[in-house]
Amino acid sequence: MELILAIVIAVLTGTGIYLLLRARTFPVVMGLTLFTYAVNLFLFAMGRIRYNAPPVTNMADIHTDPLPQALVLTAIVIGFAMTAFVVVLSLRARADLGNDHVDGIDKPRPEKELTEQTEEANA
Predict the structure, then answer these.
(1) Which residues contact 24 (CB under 8 A, 6 or more apart)?
(2) In this structure, which topology does domain 2-52+61-122 adopt according to CATH?
(3) pLDDT (tens digit, 9 = 90+) per residue, 42-87?
(4) Disulfide-capable partner of 68 in 47, 55, 98, 100 (CB 3.0 to 4.6 Å)?
């Protein structure tokens, strides 16, 4: 089970970083979300996976550590708020700039459009 969890965390982290490096805002938002899921799973796995174990009751017994669960719950709330903020920010950038590139610069135009624009400007 630990190997599967480690592979899932690695895949989510790799995919999240790959999408974070894209030039469009939607893949960046999706990459941020996947990276957040990977961090949440990592924090949850730090508390050790225990089956049918009660929370802290007696220190002599095998128990489940509640701290990673509390950290994951806090990270979920912060991740949701950050995702909502980034979505609103990208929608505002799309409305103001007219494109959805992360840096706000559109791709170079083809030569045909450039020659048409220069002809219109010269006329």
Answers:
(1) 100, 101, 102
(2) Helix Hairpins (1.10.287)
(3) 988 887 766 666 666 666 666 667 788 888 899 999 999 999 998 9
(4) 47
